[in-house]
Each structure stands twice: as C-alpha cells, then as structure tokens.
Amino acid sequence: AEDSLVAVGNFIADYAARKIAEVEDQVFFLNLNGATYGAVAGLCASTITNAKVTQMAATKTHYSDATLQNLRDLRTVPDASALRMGAYYCHPTFEALFASFNTSGNKPYNPIAQIQGTGAQPFITGPTVDGFPIRWVDIMPAYSTGANVSKVFILFGDLRYQYLGVRGQFRFDTSLEAAFTTDEILIRALERFTIGLMATGAVGGLETAGS
After folding, report:
1. 102, exposed or middle or buried, with CB in 10 Å at 0-12, 13-18, 19+?
2. 79-103: per-residue pLDDT in tens?
C-alpha cells in the first residue's frame, strides 16, 4: 500500500463488494437446499419444490426450445397480485432468443422500452416482453442448445418476496502472520446472510421437459 500508485484500499473494498454480491445472487437464485450454502433453496429450485412452474412440452429439454407462448404461460403461474410488479429474470445471453420473437406482424420484445418510457408497467427499467420488464441476471443459467433436463432457467414474478436477510455489516479480517514469510498482509471479507421465500405465489419458473 505504501508503494502503490493506485488506491489499493478502494480496489479491495470494491472487489470484495462485487464478490459478496455474486455469492448473494448465487444463493438467491440458484442454491440447492443443503448443497453448498446451507439449508436454503434459491428460486430456481424452490419454484420446482412449490410446484410453481410451467414445464415445456415433452422432448423440449433445451433452453433454446423456449417459445413466446412459454413465456406467456409462465405469467399465469404466480398469483395475479404479482403481475403489477412482475418481471422476467434470466441470463443476458437470452437476448437473441427474445429478439427472435419479433416478426413482421408481432413485436412483443422491446429492447428500448426504458428509453421510450412505454410498457404495461409503471416501472420500466429495461427491455420488455409484452410490456413486462426483463431483468438480466448474470448468475442465471446461460442460453444453451444442449440438453438440460427438468431445469428452471427463466423466472417471472415479484421477487421482493424472496427476502435477503443480512446480519450486521461486512467484516474485514486481516492477518500479518499468515503470509509473514512473503511479507504480505492477507485480507478476507465476510458477510452473514440468509434468504427465504415469504410467498410461494409471488414467482414462477419456466422448466425444461423431463425427457
């Protein structure tokens, strides 16, 4: 730090925050109950457990098989009250699939809805399908043409009901001894948090076929 030409402290704080946010998203969206991050289930798993999914037709085991009708069927899964703040959640690599839904007579996908200020919802913060916002989430399953059996890969609903409970603040620990022989200071960042779904009817998932 004494000899650095850059603000090392700022870099470490920013890097730690981004990595902790990545783990939060991993647990929030993808965690399997008891698999890696404790006995909590992310939304891609809990929507299956709670039978809040619309499953694609038999043999449609590829993410690339998703259709516009599948996305519209997905909106019928959550409770009606979730529609007002409802949005789609998926990986950014699905943008080309959404764009393919636009034909000469039907253009449900609007990539510039935020700029235009148009759509069915009062809160537009990105592209839309049928007026419902799309939130790009890097941790969600990426677009693939390979088989992924019985996997939820797109979510729709009001995700405010999947809470993120944080205990205290970030904690930074340092050690002068662990890397004493190389004259380094080791730093680790820690956060205590958990998740939980407060209303099973708030969100649904689009699931590939079982076979």
Report:
1. middle
2. 999 999 999 999 999 999 999 999 9
CA–CA separation, 42 and 44 (whole Å): 6
CB 200, CB 77: distance < 8 Å? no
Beta bridge partners of 128: 110, 133
pTM of the predicted model as reported, rounded to 2 decimal places: 0.86
Average pLDDT, the chain: 89
Q: What are the E-state strand segments in 56-185?
A: 87-90, 109-110, 128-129, 132-136, 152-157, 162-175
CB atoms within 10 A of CB 53: 20
Instruction: Calculate the alpha carbon distances from 1 to 4, 81, 172, 173 in Å.
Output: 5, 53, 16, 17
Tell me the torsion sign for CA atoms 135, 136, 137, 142.
Answer: positive
